[in-house]
Amino acid sequence: MPTTSNGGVDLYYETAGTGDTVAFVGDIGYGAWQWGWQHAAVAGPYESLVADLRGAGRSAAPSGPYTVEDLSDDLTTILSDAGVRSAHVVGAGLGGMVALHTALDTSRVDSLTLVGTAARGDGLDLEPLWGAPDDEADLERSLAAGLSEQFVDAHPDAVEQMVGWRAAEDASRRAWEAQAAAVADFDVSEQLYEITVPSLVVHGSADATWPSARAEALATGLPRGSYREIDGAGHLVHVEASRRVNDDLLGFLADI
User: Fold this and answer.
1) How many CB atoms lie within 10 A of CB 125?
2) Phi then psi dihedrals of residue 122, to 5 deg
3) Is 199 helix (H, G, I), strand (E, B) or coil?
4) Is residue 127 part of a domain?
5) Which domain holds residue 233?
6) Which residues in 40-58 are b (16+ Cβ under 10 Å) and which e?
7) What is the pLDDT of residues 217-253, one digit of tens each?
8) For 105-120, what is each residue's pLDDT tens digit?
9) Is residue 159 part of a domain?
10) How many domains, in total, are found in the chain?
11) Which of 75, 170, 223, 233 has its CA 20 to 30 A from that of 7?
12) pTM to 2 decimal places
């Protein structure tokens, strides 16, 4: 699978399908497993590009703290290496912030789909989402913090599978803290009017970590923003409500 390097930091990504590129940028701590459902839905009518953030998965984990600008530079490096001039960018949590920064700073974003994210990261308590990759019980506990209670109760096999993926791909504590610093320092709430690409904001109503009020404010602040709230879903809305999110994503892309 392809890798590239940004300032000596090795970055892993993979692509599938043909057509316009949809690039997925993940949330704090999680490996590329989080996009398995969207990757499968998009690859075919589009080219799907899934990258591991620095600090997670098969990408390198340099000393932190990281900034959203660092991670945006990583994304544009990956796009260049893949021969992609511009892409529809889908970002979750921290990845949504990376997508916003990239849209502000470059002309490489054709549209934004922003999942469980916000225009600013001050005051968020991300700690419940942290799970030690070598501690299965801790991974399960922290995974439950990102999902609704209803999903956890109804899909124990899926939760078990995700725990296995997390053990293999998720960030170490040091790298997680470096990524968390990027979230805490991010604020583009006064610059949203500059982002004129079509934008879809998707949020779970039961997200206990990233308040839905911030997501609504994000959608309102984007000149071409629209908001979809998925009732009862937690922070990992693209995981637990994958069919709904996929339908919204593909419908949004088809209408651009």
Assistant:
1) 8
2) -65, 140
3) strand
4) no
5) 3-122+173-255
6) ebbbeebbbbbbbbbbbbb
7) 999 999 999 999 999 999 999 999 999 999 999 999 9
8) 999 999 999 999 999 9
9) no
10) 1
11) 170
12) 0.97
